[in-house]
Amino acid sequence: MVVIASIFLGSLIALTSATPTPRSGMLVRSSRSDAPAGFVHKGAAPPDKSIPLRIALVQNNMAGLEKALYDVSTPGNLNYGKHLSKEQVEAYVKPAKASVDAVNAFLESNDIHATTLSPTGDWLGFSASVSKANEMFDADFSVYTHSATGQELIRTLSYSIPSSLQEHLDIVHPTTTFTAGNGSLPLDFVRLKKNGTATPPGVQFGSVPSSCSSTITPACLQALYGLPTALATQSSNEIAVAGFLNQFAQQADLTDFLIALRPDLDPNTAFTLDTIDGGSNPQDPNDAGPEANLDTQYTVGVAQGVPVTFISAGPDNTDGFAGFLDMINHLLSMDNPPQVLSTSYSFNEPDLDQGAASNLCNAYMQLGARGVSIFFASGDGGVAGAQSTSCTSFVPTFPSTCPYVTSVGSTQGVPETSASFSGGGFSNFFPLPPYQSSAVASYLNSIGSTNAGNFNANGRGFPDIAAQGMNVEIFVGGVAGIVAGTSCSTPIFASTVALINDQLIAAGKSPLGFINPLIYANPSAFNDITSGNNPGCNTSGFPATSGWDPVTGLGSPNFGALSTAAGL
């Protein structure tokens, strides 16, 4: 999995227990004891330096939206499948006029005029000098250097807001969130001696070719999971693939992939390009990105016939999430967003401000309520997030810990076992959601005191499901090779859901949307993975067991059983 630089470079840190004393009339909104591991304090930021900031206003009725999301996503509910319109969702989110007026009055009193950044006006953006920001928010903005990449960030360890705004202003961002977005830990691309190791498509479910033990291809996935090979028929059914960090998807490589591994498909099948934040997608072979190629090849090449859009996020973002927030606001602004979003990037949860993470998580809830299935890779460091041995507590990854997305872990081999790198664990930000309470309770009871003290037993567990993630064949720069990671598993499972959506839409039914209540109610729709573990932090991590576990979730998909559970 390609990761944003600071995502997997920190160990869990505790928020400070000694709350800073704000000046009169101010209320501490967020503070932390120190910068995350991997960041070095370099000194005070220049007072006249202009920095971009964003304000999230208190949203109207997120509890009501959450109830509406569960209603439309839970089988048996009278509203199941009746996804909300853009306008209905926005009515839950739009801040009260009193909040808009109060926050704008505060900004204007400081000679600042904000720009609205989201469809409902819950996010405002502006720039201010460091000295002005320090004054407005009782902060101490300083320069921090990310050791691995050399990127400099201007952040503060604490900030406050006027107490008169506590019911109106949710967070100021990025303040105590530390994310460095100009570097990556790339997929390890291993060149193959020959191209096209797949048997011809159409292998019967269960008849897994012997080659799949060493190299995973679309034909292997069809045999393992019972995926259909016929072209999807519904043009309204779409998949969006998120691209970050100058990972560019190559049409020429997709063509080579289809010729070698899906010879039954038109080799000229293309994806559509969409861009945000100055994004681009150059087609020189030297620009080929293993992550972007993987994500497009295993959506176009597995969900055959489903239109795929590659959304390339460029460097012109100031959202403090390396473009994640801009990406979701871009999708929320659409009248008809794609029914599936696949993202193979994430952050270490402790690197983020909890309020900021909650706001981004709420944006995923908005999309889910509108009928979008959102998938995130669970990470490639087992329980350590960063593939680190220095952590003393397990490191969950975000957005996988957001309860409104579906987190995807990895399996390997034939028969399948868990992949040792498969990220998993429990959130320190988000509580256990109702749809997985029984499954998680059973797991925790089964492991007893294992790893006690290393994780939050009351947190949202992840991943939710899994798919093959080891020795997956792709093409990069005209060359065939294999890669590994939960970023392989994510587009594979996203494609599985897109194929089910195609059949649902053809039958006059709604697409799946937020799938977690459905899948936890139907664990038999998955191939249960009961062996392996995900080590990290100088431990063996969690063991995979019968039922849900924080290594492979509920297991890998059985397309026929999952389709039946979906009402087909």
TrEMBL record:
Active-site positions on this chain: E291 (charge relay system), D295 (charge relay system), S487 (charge relay system)
* Signal peptide range: 1-18
Stretches that traverse the bilayer = none
Q: What does this protein do?
A: Secreted tripeptidyl-peptidase which degrades proteins at acidic pHs and is involved in virulence.
| Broad EC category | hydrolase
State the PANTHER family in the record.
PROTEASE S8 TRIPEPTIDYL PEPTIDASE I CLN2, TRIPEPTIDYL-PEPTIDASE 1
Q: Which organism is it from?
A: Piloderma croceum (strain F 1598)
Matches recorded under Gene3D superfamilies:
Peptidase S8/S53 domain
Task: Give the UniProt subcellular location, in the record's own words.
Answer: Secreted, Extracellular space
Chief place where the protein resides? secreted
**What does the Swiss-Prot or TrEMBL cofactor note state?**
Binds 1 Ca(2+) ion per subunit.
Name under which the protein is recorded: tripeptidyl-peptidase II
Which terms does the record give in the GO molecular function aspect? metal ion binding; serine-type endopeptidase activity; tripeptidyl-peptidase activity
Q: Which domain of life is it from?
A: Eukaryota
